[in-house]
Amino acid sequence: MDKIDKVIIKNVSRDGRVSFREIAEQVGISHVAIKKRFDKLLKDERIKIGCMRNVKNCKLKYYWVYLSVVNKKELMKQVHNCDKIIDIMDTYGEFDIGLLFGVTNYSTIDCVLDKCIKLDKNNIKKRMTLPILDMDSGYIISSSEDKQCDKKKWCATCEYSKMQKCEGCD
């Protein structure tokens, strides 16, 4: 990967709709050459095309919840389909997993973990929650397809949901 490839990646990362002609003008080669380089970056799997959320317009608060667990596989099964969890990160060291939440308020995290997905307290060794105070880029890449929360399974038996006090599945 050379300087021109890095310029292509930087421009496309900033605005996925940037034209090859605009990039070509910056580096001084033809737009056809830029397209060939872009296609090669895709083919060689140096880049991939995806969709990002504009978090500045979502009116949500974002938190990383890091967990140290006894049974990681079981936890992954439990959290995989929650629509409040935007991203799941495999971690090493003190914590086993990081969950990126996009929620209306902090209490929603506890509600989702405790009531909606019925997180087994015996599986959690340690938990740390960190608010994301400033989203510089304003965008988050979603790691999975549209998630569908199984509201019938979780909310049907939840007292908070029945009282309409739960924000976990809004």
Could you describe the 3D structure shown?
It is a single chain. This protein is of the alpha+beta class and 170 residues long. The protein has two domains: 3-43, Arc Repressor Mutant, subunit A (Orthogonal Bundle), CATH 1.10.10; 53-162, Alpha-Beta Plaits (2-Layer Sandwich), CATH 3.30.70.920. The protein is built from seven helices and six strands, in the order H-H-H-E-E-H-E-E-H-E-E-H-H. It has a four-stranded antiparallel β-sheet with strand order 3-4-2-5, covered by helices on one side. Strands 1-6 form a two-stranded antiparallel ribbon. Strand 3 (85-90) and strand 4 form a beta hairpin. It is elongated.
Brief characterization of the structure:
The protein is of the alpha+beta class. The chain has helices spanning 3-14, 20-27, 31-43, 72-79, 107-116, 151-154, 159-162, and strands at 52-54, 61-69, 85-90, 97-103, 124-131, 139-141.
DSSP strand count: 6
Q: What is the overall shape?
A: elongated
Distance between the termini: 45 Å
For the record, what is the CATH homologous superfamily label of the largest domain? Answer: Lrp/AsnC effector binding domain/regulation of amino acid metabolism (RAM) domain
> How does the helix and strand content classify structurally?
alpha+beta
Q: Helical region count?
A: 7
The oligomeric state of the chains shown is single chain
Question: CATH class of the largest domain, please?
Answer: Alpha Beta
If strands are numbered along the chain, what order do they take across the biggest sheet?
3-4-2-5
Question: How much is the average pLDDT?
Answer: 78
